[in-house]
Amino acid sequence: MNQKATPTLEKVVPEAEDFLPLLGTDHIELYCGNAKQSAYYYITAWGFKPVAYAGLETGNKETVSYVLKQDKITLVLTSPLNAGGPINDHINRHGDGVKAVALWVDNAEKSWNETTKRGAVSVFEPETRTDAHGSVVLSAIETYGDTIHVFVERKNYEGVFLPGYEAWNPSIPTQNVGLKYVDHMVGNVGWGEMNTWVDFYTRVMGFAQLISFDDKDISTEYTALMSKVMSNGNGRIKFPINEPAEGRKKSQIEEYIDFYQGAGVQHIAVATSNIIETVTELQARGIEFLRVPNTYYDTVLDRVGEIDEDLDPLRKLGILIDRDDEGYLLQIFTKPVVDRPTMFFEIIQRKGAKSFGKGNFKALFEAIEREQESRGTL
Questions:
Q1: CB atoms inside a 10 Å sphere around CB 100
Q2: 10, 183, 206, 363: which could form a disulfide with 17 (CB 3.0–4.6 Å)?
Q3: Residues 209 and 160 in one domain
Q4: pLDDT of residue 9
Q5: Mean pLDDT score across all residues of the chain
Q6: In this model, does residue 376 exceed pLDDT 90?
Q7: Per-residue pLDDT at 366
Q8: What residues make up the domain containing 89?
């Protein structure tokens, strides 16, 4: 699998030590109750291309995995083949969700050594996997909840994904929707745990804090949360960390923690170079998005200033707009894409902006509250 760096500016976070360093997001592995059907969903609705497969036919008697790719985004969907075991336990507790955020590195052994000597808990030590296409070195550490980081060193590998996988070319029509790369991934943690994980990413992985939001920034009449955005030095990996804050009713973070039964990845933000085309196609394929009131658009240009896009299609699709000192961004959020009100996706197009849509927080979280109210969980 050919890897290319995510197209972001180098050294956007000079405070970060970047001692690993991280080259980009290699892949995201989700544990699923039915990986085969989940793969069909991501292929037909989201435009991912089937790439690789591992299972009984490849000699794997324990798990089955489907690998999907769209530009620089790689998803791995994994299900157990037998009763019992850690994957069943994960699915029973959390439902479908992200297990591994795999990070592309130049040296997986060095990455494991550097992080474990700084206090990371090892999941597995560096191991080399080999087949006819070369070798890959993998290692892994724990992070929040049951989520792990896998370090992937693939400079000596020319295969379709990893050793143990074979090319997978089902007869399913595929058409991408213009998704480019993972912009950021957001983790939800429990009460009082945000700073613990901010310290983890600073101390253990050499990240620096890019920006922070407190309950005054992210609050509505009913709920509130706090968030800090951690980034590695080259800006290719950004992990906002959310925790609940006191409010009159149950916040979206509390709802997530309740249904996921612990900390985990809340949403995956994926970038596009034309959000109007991408969201139009996704909506046509049945993807449901959160909607803000139409009145949002009556004053949004007064707040963000002139933009290149016509406002009418943004209004029609429900796309939000925000601006920082370096430009503006366009963003929209799906409803949960799994049965529990846990994981969802963000579609984002950056027109220079490096921020995360602070100006949209109130309207967005009020939209989330309306969904919570419909579920009876507010």
A1: 22
A2: 206
A3: no
A4: 36
A5: 90
A6: no
A7: 72
A8: 22-167
